[in-house]
Amino acid sequence: MIKVAFASTDRRRVNQHFGAAEGFVVYEISPDKATLVGIGEFPEEAMDGNEDKLTAKVDFLVGCVAVYVMAIGASAIKKLIAKSIQPIRVNEVDAIDDL
Known about the structure:
Layout: E1 2-7, E2 13-14, E3 23-29, E4 34-41, H1 52-61, E5 66-69, H2 74-82, E6 86-89, E7 94-95
């Protein structure tokens, strides 16, 4: 079983930039099912100028093998990779169920 996270405001679609994400949903995935196991909510933040905002988000995602996002900056990618979490960028607002 693996854990995967999705940057989402509505818990249905990937629709957030990692650094400004107000929420993440975490699913435990096995070959035959996906189970919601966690929800992280963060205050609304500006896109630039606050690197500290990344630490809490990365710490929340520890244990996940991947996180799906609409966009992500280089410093966030480095922090995630250091914790063995693979960031995956989607080009459009994608439904979590489809991913």
